Amino acid sequence: MIFNLTKLMFLISLIFSTMFSISSTNWMSMWMGLEMNLFSFIPILNFKMSIYSIESTMKYFMIQAFASILLMMFMINKMLFFMINNNLLIIIPLLIKLSLMPFHLWMPSMIEGLNWLSCLLMFTWQKISPMILISYLNMNKNFIFMILFLMINSIMGMNQNSLRKILAMSSINNSSWMLMLIMINENMWMYYFMIYSTLNFLIINILMKYKINYINQLKFFNMNFMFKLNMLMLIFSIMGLPPMMGFLMKWMLIKTLMYNNMYMIMYMLILLTIFNLYFYMKMSYFLIFNFNLFNKWFMQNKKNKFNYIMFLNFFSLFLNFFNLN
């Protein structure tokens, strides 16, 4: 993708709006930062103009504008009437912006019409401002626990063939882990977010490079051994299997919940993650069993070099070893 000055300007404005929102000292400035973030992100969604991206952009704009109106109404209500439980109202528009249950139905339908760069920004950068604003609220952990009870979005991803929708369901599930972690320890949330963003970047980089959009394309896609191994390790990592890097980010929250005697929330999070393993296993099924239409000895790249993805995954083995000790 070639960046011209216009695209670069919108990306810089997107970064600046997020920093402005999370560094503000009052809710009005935070709301202004969220609005700047919205109007900076709308042109980024249309870098590659198509009828599908226009439809997704309109969906995103309407949902985010509705959430901003609710946030403004609740802020005015808090400043004028000083309601005691107003924090419960302010968190609702932030959950809409995060696409968390029960306000998550707009994300899978919207994400299908976007390109992979916009999907990466949706899964990573656009979660920073709402989550940090939620951490500023003096929320009761029981309210977050009730949200986790409603997290049945994993069931929706079981019958999906689109990789964009599968990654969107994975993003919603990981957002519940990050939301719980940022309410307890913000420093550990930063580690979780960095690992999750790295895994998303590596997976989306492969899918964008080889133009893979659906699971069915993995069945007849001619791939060499190193590509298979890289993709499998990344899928196992984002699944949260113990040897991989993705287990490190989930293990941090599990240990924190155990230290705080929050066992019910820990059991609920683990149970919801198990449902996600199903559509991850669908992705890995076509990689483990070879369905190529070409000869077995045919290789796209005869000279395979050591990939940086392999280095990151093997390095995560040592991180998990020292963390478990």
Automatic annotation (TrEMBL):
Residues of the NADH:quinone oxidoreductase/Mrp antiporter transmembrane domain: 24-273
Domain of life: Eukaryota
UniProt GO BP: mitochondrial electron transport, NADH to ubiquinone
Molecular-function annotations in GO: NADH dehydrogenase (ubiquinone) activity
Swiss-Prot/TrEMBL catalytic activity: a ubiquinone + NADH + 5 H(+)(in) = a ubiquinol + NAD(+) + 4 H(+)(out)
Top-level enzyme category: translocase
EC annotation from Swiss-Prot or TrEMBL: 7.1.1.2
TM region(s), chain numbering: 61-82, 88-107, 166-184, 190-208, 229-253, 265-294, 306-324
A UniProt-annotated Pfam family: Proton_antipo_M
Annotated keywords: Electron transport, Membrane, Mitochondrion, Mitochondrion inner membrane, NAD, Respiratory chain, Translocase, Transmembrane, Transmembrane helix, Transport, Ubiquinone
Membrane topology: Multi-pass membrane protein
Compartments reported by the entry: Mitochondrion inner membrane
Protein family according to the UniProt entry: Belongs to the complex I subunit 2 family.
Protein name: NADH-ubiquinone oxidoreductase chain 2
Species assigned in the record: Cervaphis quercus
Name of the gene this protein is made from: ND2
